[in-house]
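Q: Sequence in, structure out?
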Amino acid sequence: MKITDFDFSLPESLIAKRPQKDRTGSRLLVLHRDGTVIHSLFSDFPSYLNPGDMLLLNNTKVFPARITGFKKSGGAIEMLLVRKTGDDSWEVLTKGNFTGNLHISDELQVELVNGKTAKFVCQGDFREIIWKYGSMPLPPYIKRIPDETDKETYQTVFAKEEGSIAAPTAGLHFTESLLREIVRKGIILRELTLHVGIGTFKPIRADHVQDHVMDTEYFEMDAELLSEIAKTKALGRRIVSVGTTTTRTLEGCMSGNCEMLSLNGILRGTTGIFIYPGYSFRAIDSLVTNFHLPRSTPLMLVSALCGFNTLMKAYKEAIAEGYRFLSYGDAMLIL
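A: Exactly. Output:
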């Protein structure tokens, strides 16, 4: 398969720059495997689940990983904190290859090397200072400067475990009241953690899909969750995954495409699973997801679940109907 096989025309006007004020007011396109499309609202989502189904959420929490430092000359360099490599050191992304000291605040300075590694000197709690001076790492296609409201809106209501540099955006549509409604209906609600890294959204440079290699991402889950999933499936109930990150965690574990160990009742590990058409799903039956970029790895994962042609027919209808795309956009449910 070629990367160009996963191309389509996405009007710039349909890329959502800001979220809906009411999370559940987002539109929901329900796609059946036979290609049938139903147009709904996310507030109707519980009506598509049955008692005994299991709904799985990624409870990772995004931290404000974009932070700006200033040279002695006054020039500014923006850094994206990608991965912690030591007590005070981080792998970062910047424009250019600057080496030298940067001033962030009286509480925080940094030594940057080749624009790629940063060693921080911090007076106080590093995380608290980052929340004070950093901004949320909105994807570049949103094309605006993040503001303080994004620290709440670019975060799921069930976010708990801090460590992501991108939100598991399918989860942004849920509210606490909707989750309570889901539980009242008899749906089994479970959580896991996958810290979303740069690899989930890294552009594919290879010409052929099979040549792309995903970066690994860290996950945690209850050690009993995989067996609970198997029991639920054995009873004929559905496993409904919220988002491609949740899906990759589960499928990585069930396919053996991961490294993990169990300690004190918790599975911890990493997975670099890359799911594209031809993959046989072991864990999930249904998927809640947003509308994705052309040629992206999340688009390929969704194509593997329902078929690329079926997906593109649904996308064509979504574009015609003015659905909002990408992180702050509307949602799709694949049944």
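The mean pLDDT is 96.
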